[in-house]
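Changelog-adjacent note: as of this version, every example in the card shows the full chain rather than a window. The one below runs 327 residues end to end.
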Amino acid sequence: MPTFILRSCLGGLDSILGGLTGPGVHLQKMAKEGYMQRLTADERILWMDRFGIEKSILSFPTVSMYMGDEKEVERPKERKKISGFLNDLFEENHAKHPKRLFFFADVPLTVDVEFSCRELHRATKKRGIKGVAIQSNLGGKLPSDPMFEEFFREVEGLGLPVFMHPHSPYGKEKMMKYLVYAIVGYTADVSLAATYMILDGFLERHQDIKIILPHLGGTIPYLYRRLHACTENDYVPPSMSGKANLSKAPDEYLKQFYYDTAIGSPLSLELCLKVSGGSGRILFGSDHPYISWCEARTIDYLSKTKLTVDERNNIYSRNAHKLFDLL
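Full-length structure tokens:
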């Protein structure tokens, strides 16, 4: 799932917050062609054309990247305003390119679940909204936490795909060297959230929900057999908080997720295909603009895989058209 950073968007956030100070501001100062650009809608279309991308489902980077993790919780009023601003901006840009640009709604789930439900309903009345983006941890809480149950019931009822973008991982302060917090920490955080969605019974309760895991699912496809230990008596000591009670083997639930191809490799994609049940759950995603020339890199590694023509068509377009109901 690519990310969209509009020039007017950051200016709008700045007017709401009275100044941007989060790590995203620092990254913007490193912008160059192919990395961390701030694009207008028209420029985004030209960028898509360079790589033969017909349509994009776009999300804004996590708002805390521009507020700071603590400030997002400390300033709930401003955080709610940002969601409204972004969702209106998304529709404005969809109207400029109605056949090419679509968006994930933004909701302030970290600060207000009830408001997020209302904003979700308001946003989905807009033609350009095709899903909703959340974070893999929400103010230190897992998405499968019961406090978010109302929100996910609404999402499931609306039939909206949920893009679960990685966020500041637990223990981040120990991962600052060599960019480990982003490379390992983010993928681990998505994997942790997905694991609890399985073991807490979230996917049992929401069997029709459509969760998209970025980066080929983080690490969870490669640890799939270890999940069985969470349900087998031989592995769960009495000192731990019991074993998960599920209706099927834990790895079977991996077939309920969708996975995007961002920052993958031929080998990792091969295993993800086997764990997820085939190419019908894989979506083309690039992680624009965080990786230099990420579209080219993703297309390059996909070209080196042993995919059939049908599998390639699924990943590049067919799955997204079906999942997002694109014309």
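Structural remarks: The radius of gyration is 19 Å.
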